[in-house]
Automatic annotation (TrEMBL):
Keyword line: Signal
Protein name: Outer membrane protein beta-barrel domain-containing protein
Organism encoding this protein: Chitinophaga hostae
Superkingdom in the source lineage: Bacteria
Signal peptide: 1-20
Length: 194
């Protein structure tokens, strides 16, 4: 899939999901203040944060939004990140190096659905999605030569400090078509709710 098509699909998805934030139901509550959600009042349904490791593969700037107009429930996250250049080595059965390839800096685009539950300042987030890497990564994919798709499942703890500061920590399991990471990778993030 060309990168332009992928970016267009993500942009269309976000423009559609922004309209999901307007609701006429007053039964929704903001869990920080336990007040009813009414149009015009702030409920902090969106967040922007930088994350390290996790679905971004190294570092990514992410945008997160809830579909129901509160700071809990089903939502989507998407980001744009980078993975640094690195070297990959091939070994034979005797453990000797048979080849080395240097991989350039890669663009990463993580996106997926997530669900948030919790009260007060403490929340649990579970999610699943895909990450596009702009170059081949032999760590995960030995089939393609110009890109890599990774599937991921994550579980994170979210902590809000004050009204706007957001901190996240959790684990992400990643897999490609032929490879499943033996251990989940840690994820850490910090940003703002608005």
């Amino acid at each position: 899939m060309p990168i332009r098509t992928l970016i267009t699909v993500i942009a269309l998805f976000f423009s559609h999901s922004l309209f999901a934030q307007i609701t006429r139901h007053s039964r929704h509550t903001d869990s920080l203040s336990h007040t009813p959600y009414l149009p015009g009042l702030r409920s902090f349904t969106q967040a922007a944060y930088i994350s390290f490791w996790g679905p971004g593969a190294f570092a990514a700037m992410n945008y997160d939004i809830r579909f129901n107009g509160t700071n809990q429930g089903l939502g989507v996250r998407a980001g744009l990140g980078v993975a640094p250049d690195y070297s990959e080595k091939w070994y034979n059965r005797k453990g000797q190096v048979t080849g080395t390839i240097r991989r350039p800096v890669m663009l990463t685009i993580p996106f997926g659905l997530n669900y948030i539950i919790g009260t007060g300042k403490h929340f649990m987030e579970v999610g699943t999605g895909m990450t596009y890497l702009s170059d081949d990564s032999l760590c995960y994919d030995d089939i393609t030569t110009s890109y890599t798709w990774l599937g991921w499942v994550s579980m994170n703890y979210r902590r809000t400090v004050g009204k706007h500061l957001l901190m996240r920590v959790g684990l992400t399991a990643m897999a490609s078509k032929r490879y499943v990471a033996p251990f989940p990778t840690p994820e850490w993030g910090m940003g703002f709710r608005f």
